[in-house]
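Q: what sequence does this backbone want?
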């Protein structure tokens, strides 16, 4: 699933002047001229630096959280035809090392797996409705692609070992509830499909109903996600193309995950944890991440994964992987 902290958030993709024009277009009448719209947005707009200085000197003004800022930025560009909003974070790890590659699904003569490979993720979402219920809820379509590429295995054509496709349809709702010291600003629920696009004995897929609640307190953000797997028919034989490819997947991936994020100045520390909560046969996974400043458009990213279910082809095989690379769009 990935850490879905930014269900309603995306980095700004337009200048403040352009955002003003987009918002003015939404309320303009058929008789409003372009000159009038430009005049409406011609007043000086406070720069981010001046705004930050003003916030620092005005101690009475409440500080926006990282999630609130992401939601606000996304709403500013929601009406633009030229914006594509990040769903989960987008990254590329040009070097990853897995000390226990799963050779079982692949013929070792045709494709002997290397421990080093490239891993990347591309994730976006699109709003399908205008804001509803007092402008606080919206329906989204999202798609996430996660790939593992044996790019350095040039003697065997450098193939993509595994690619997971994850389209989903979900409703995100701002609620602004308070639970003790924790604030609950966003909840979401929807339907999710995940598949590796393979056939035969390499085929893996499942469908889920998913619910998420996002909590925050200070520099901490926590996303609690639970899911119910939609049942599938059993296969009549292992060679059958129809039926459940992985009937025991919840024994390894469980029924939910917990995402934790902590921001310290310009650094972000992330953790994603799953467990099947079975005392007798306990299985789970942990993915840890650290992002740090590197440039204007990208951030450095270190990721470590240990446990089951890093990819669908390896859902029932333990993986121990570390990778370094770049993050293009942050979670928060």
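A:
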């Amino acid at each position: 699933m990935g850490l879905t902290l930014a269900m309603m958030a995306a980095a700004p993709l337009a200048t403040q002047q352009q955002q003003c024009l987009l918002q003015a277009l939404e309320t303009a009448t058929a008789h409003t001229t372009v000159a009038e719209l430009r005049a409406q947005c011609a007043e000086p707009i406070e720069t981010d630096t001046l705004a930050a200085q003003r916030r620092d000197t005005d101690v009475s003004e409440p500080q926006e959280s990282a999630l609130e800022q992401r939601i606000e930025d996304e709403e500013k560009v929601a009406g633009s035809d030229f914006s594509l909003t990040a769903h989960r974070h987008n990254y590329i790890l040009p070097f990853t090392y897995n000390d226990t590659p799963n050779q079982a699904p692949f013929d070792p003569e045709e494709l002997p797996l290397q421990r080093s490979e490239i891993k990347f993720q591309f994730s976006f979402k699109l709003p399908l409705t205008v804001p509803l219920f007092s402008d606080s809820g919206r329906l989204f379509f999202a798609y996430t692609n996660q790939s593992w590429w044996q790019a350095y295995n040039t003697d065997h054509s450098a193939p993509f070992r595994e690619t997971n496709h994850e389209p989903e349809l979900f409703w995100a709702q701002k609620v602004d509830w308070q639970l003790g010291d924790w604030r609950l600003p966003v909840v979401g629920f929807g339907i999710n499909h995940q598949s590796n696009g393979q056939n035969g004995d390499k085929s893996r897929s499942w469908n889920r109903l998913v619910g998420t609640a996002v909590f925050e307190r200070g520099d901490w953000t926590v996303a609690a996600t639970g899911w119910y797997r939609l049942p599938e028919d059993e296969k009549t034989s292992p060679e059958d193309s129809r039926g459940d490819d992985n009937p025991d997947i919840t024994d390894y991936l469980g029924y939910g995950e917990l995402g934790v994020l902590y921001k310290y100045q310009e650094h972000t520390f992330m953790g994603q944890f799953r467990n099947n909560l079975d005392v007798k046969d306990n299985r789970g996974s942990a993915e840890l991440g650290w992002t740090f400043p590197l440039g204007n458009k990208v951030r450095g990213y270190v990721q470590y994964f240990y446990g089951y279910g890093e990819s669908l082809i390896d859902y029932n095989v333990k993986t121990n992987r570390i990778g370094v690379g770049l993050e293009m769009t942050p979670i928060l």
